[in-house]
Design brief:
Blueprint lengths: L1 E23 L9 E11 L5 E4 L5 E7 L3 E14 L3 H7 L30 H12 L5 H15 L1 E2 L10 H7 L1 E2 L1 H14 L4 E8 L19 E8 L3 E6 L4 E2 L4 E7 L8 E7 L4 E11 L1
Parallel strand pairs: 6-7
Antiparallel strand pairs: 1-4, 1-5, 1-13, 1-14, 2-5, 3-4, 8-9, 8-12, 9-10, 10-11
Helix pairs in contact: 2-5, 3-5, 4-5
Length: about 290
Amino acid sequence: MLLSIIHRTIYRYSDSARDSVNELRLSPEETARQSPQSCTLEISPPATLTSSRDLFGNLVHSFTVEKDHTELSVTGRSLVETRSCPHLVYRSHTIPLDRFPADHRDDLPYDFLTESSCVPRDPQTWREALDVKARSSRSWGHLLTNLRNHIFETCTYHEQKVHVMRTATEVQRERIGTCQDFAHLMIAQLRSLKIPARYCSGYLYDSGLDGKKSPELLGAAVTHAWVEALVPDIGWLGIDPTNRCWVDERYVSVASGRDYHDIVPIRGSLLGGGEHRSLDILLQVKAV
């Protein structure tokens, strides 16, 4: 599938702002599931972009707007060819759970096993994960499917225009949240079982939002979040608890980390700007 993505973010300030320092994680990169054909970033007021890699290997662009301004616009445009990997999902259902990563602890990525700011350790989350695991004796694919389905069936999706950060523990107790919340909850469950899990951020194509039929996926109108678990003999395998499905050609990965704090699409600071500020976001993901 060839997907065209436009992601525009506009900040408006009631008074002049200056010395706006920003970092962006908006550029899809080459993976086994996707091949970017093009990717551009447009900044207004114009600014010089520099690039680097963060701790988790994500591509980060940085820029500074020193002069006075009352509006800042950041637009990412990407064209990405995506692929589905059903053979990996099928293979996960053939790998028995006794092939547990704890057998090779020295080779595991510690950052994705320990707690993080949005994914603290919680006894109730661990007990819930153990209950699901007890019903998933057949294979890795069975366990991941059951954890994913459990969240989908026991939690209610609630879209937020303004993102409010919550921990996996809060989501576990309240059973309501966004795709970011459900990703954090599943990561917490996996890590409580000593399974490395990471937070993935990017875009989700919904043919309904493309005008082809009615919308059918949750969280596709904004940047989306899902989970990747480290499966023996396979590697990182993507699961979306918000939509109760495996990650396929509809998903475009941009960044991954321990939780949302590691992959914020746009992070910055500035001087001035006044008391009143507004934020507008436009996201279009279309099949070409």
